[in-house]
Structures are given as structure tokens and as C-alpha cells.
Amino acid sequence: MRALTWQGKRNVSVETVPDPTILEADDAIIEVTSTAICGSDLHLYEVLTPFMDAGDIIGHETMGRVVEVGPESRLTPGERVVIPFPISCGRCWMCSRGLTTQCETTQVREHGTGAALFGYSRLYGSVPGGQAEYLRVPYSSVGPIRVGEELPDHRYLFLSDILPTAWQAVRYADVGPGDRLTVYGLGPVGQFAARIGLHLGAEVTAVDPVPERRALAARYGARVFDVQDDVNDEIRDATEGRGPDAVIDAVGMEAHGSPAAHFAHQALGLLPDALGRKLLETGGVDRLAALHAAVDLVRRGGTISLSGVYGGQADPMPMLSLFDKQIQLRMGQCNVTSWTEELLPLVEDPADPLGTEDLVTHRVPLEQAPEAYDMFQKKLDGCIKVVLDPVAP
After folding, report:
1. Mean local confidence (pLDDT), 210-230
2. Residue 48's pLDDT band (cuts 50, 70, 90)
3. Where is the Alcohol dehydrogenase-like C-terminal domain (predicted)?
């Protein structure tokens, strides 16, 4: 089959690799019909390279059709399914509490991390990902989400990651009608978070440096701001000087405006992999401009919800401000299937209230994935969300 493989820092290529096969009784193989590039894929492309191996198949936002199943799978060939990015058993203590990203069966104990993830480095199990023609799905009776035939892939695909990630971020922010929510970062997760906040009745402001992203969020009713020195003051002025009830950081470890950490990330990529892994696991730092801005902005007694991925173990945090302002922090990988029951009716609503068909700016053949990664990282050509089509010639 053809698959997108990681070859080095900012270097991915589409190669011919062996087809996946059934390895366990509850495995399934799907033929991929759509697979998206996620903002967190760019961390593999740029920062987490010491945990990658040449030839790794990446990608964790995937849907397609079942083509083969193991003897214990409850799926049937021909079914159309969305594949959540965490791999979980559905039976352990954590899974029984809805914490599928902490699955005790698939935890990657070698690195002290949570559940294995599709296509996401040694840190999360080095499981082949979905930016490929075919994907092996472990625990196929638990994770895959069966979907209907009538609607296009774009309606369903984002149930794999970014839509429930945004939903969880807003739920963790604990906002509802009349509350004030600010979203930092208007990439795909930030776009959905802003729309979900508005859908739930909150007043939403959002901050991003890219005009196209601000324009898209504004179209759904968010009040948008460019990144500038006084942006927090502007938002506070609109909230009686207090700040919003909650702030969602949808940016993560590669935020703009963190020059020292940016330099550290660049230097890390020059180190031998073994040394780079050790430094990341014990002394890595993130670009924290967005998170520190969120701490400054949120009102006293408010909540910060982190959906952007962070990976540093030595990040400096403003503990005085966090404690003094009595700020609540909620965060973590998304427990995708915990939110499916709430999200599926919205996805299938003819009105498409969350705009699932109004997010993809580029759909390109899988063979063009290397160019798409470069475009997405550099935010060229108005790129907000890319979907790769393995079926296209």
C-alpha cells in the first residue's frame, strides 16, 4: 500500500509499504477513505523528532470502510467507520471510567505515558497511523464509531479527534449560557471550540495572528482579535475589567512569541536521538506564550482548559498568579468515545450547527501529503484544515 512516512525533521514522504494484516483476534483492517492532518502532527514534524523512526507511518484522524476482521471483532466488512485516535481496551479500570486515553491495557509504560495512539511516535507506542491506504485497528469492537451512508466524510471524519477534543475543552471550561469564553488559537480545534462555545450559549472572543482564521471564526459569531501586546486589556475592557470566565488554550507547545523555547526546539533537533529523547523526557520546555497569556487573562476564580498539546517536563509556570487568582486548570488528551453520544446528533443534524462541512480548506490526494504538510505548517494559501484522500489517483 501507499502511506505517508516520517523520514526526518520537516521531511515526510509517501512510500510503498507492506499492507497491514490481522494480528490479534479483535483486529480489523479498514480501507481509508479520508484522513486529516492534525495540528499535533506538526509536533512530530518539528519538535518530537527524537521519538520518531524513519519509516514511521503517521496520522491519527481517520475513517473508512471495514475490509477484514479478526474472529472476535464485532465489526462487519463493508461497514463505514470513524477511528478514534486513542487505542483502548474498553474493559480496564480507566476505560470503565471513560478515561480511554489512560487505558491500562495499552499504556506505554516504557515512557510513562497514557494509552497508545495511532501514528504518534515512540512516546505513544509507535503504532502505524492512518495517513495511508489501509489501517490496522486493534480492539476494533471498542473504538470504531459506526456511521451512516448518506453524509459526506467531512461530516463524520472529525469525530476521530478534533471535534471531541474541542467539545471536551469547552466542557472542561464549564461554560454555558451567558458565560464568557476566550479561545487562544484558531486552528481546527480552536475553530470548533469557538463554535461549540457559541452553540452552548456563551459569549466567545478569540485570538489568532492569521487573518483567514479570524475571519472564519467571526463568521460564526466570535469576536476576534489579532495577537498584539494589549489584546488581553481589550478583552478585559469588554468584561467589566475581570476577564472571561474561562480561557481555552488551543495552541500548545509551539506557540508564537516564545523565542527562547523556539531556539531550544531548534537546537534539540540537532542532537543525537538518544540524547534528545532524554532531554525532552527530563528537561524539555514548551513555548508557553499562549498559556501564560491565558493565566493573565482569565478572571479570578476562572478556569483554563488546555486542548493544545504540551510535552515539556521543565516548563516554568507562574504559580503565584495561578494560586493567587484561584485558577482551575483542566487538560489532557481527549477521551473521544466519551463524547460521541452527544456529538453524533449534531454531526448528523441537517443544519450542521458546528459547521463540520465548513472547516476543510484543502482536500488533496495522499501523494501530495508532503506539500500539504509544508503548506499547513507555514499557514500558506489560507490553509486551515487539510484532508488527504488515499482513494484519489
Report:
1. 95
2. confident
3. 188-254
Q: Same domain for 23 and 103?
A: yes
Q: What is the pLDDT of residue 61?
A: 98
Judged against a pLDDT cut of 60, whether residue 269 lies above it is answered with no
Cα–Cα distance between 332 and 278 in angstroms, integer? 22
19 and 142 belong to one structural domain: yes
Cβ count near 281 (within 10 Å): 16
Q: How far is CA 132 from CA 9, 12, 18, 20, 246, in A?
A: 20, 13, 11, 10, 38
Domain span at residue 89 reads: 2-161+335-389
Q: Give yes or no for a contact between 305 and 330, defined as CB atoms under 8 angstroms apart.
A: yes
Q: Which residues, including other chains, have CB under 8 Å from residue 133's CB and lie 6 or more apart?
A: 1, 2, 3, 31, 32, 366, 390
Determine the Cα–Cα distance for residues 107 and 98; give it in Å rounded to an integer: 15
Render pLDDT for 54-75 as a digit per residue (tens, 0 to 9).
999 999 999 999 999 999 999 9
Same domain flag for 254 and 375: no
The CATH number given to whatever domain includes residue 325 is 3.40.50.720
Is residue 220 within 8 A of residue 202, CB to CB? The reply is no
**Shared-domain flag, residues 101 and 201:** no
Number of domains the chain is built from: 2
Encoded amino acid at 226, one letter: D
State the pLDDT confidence band at 49, using cuts at 50, 70 and 90: confident
Mean pLDDT value across the chain: 91
Decide if pLDDT at 200 tops 80: yes
Find all residues with CB under 8 Å of 345, minimum gap 6, and list them.
Answer: none
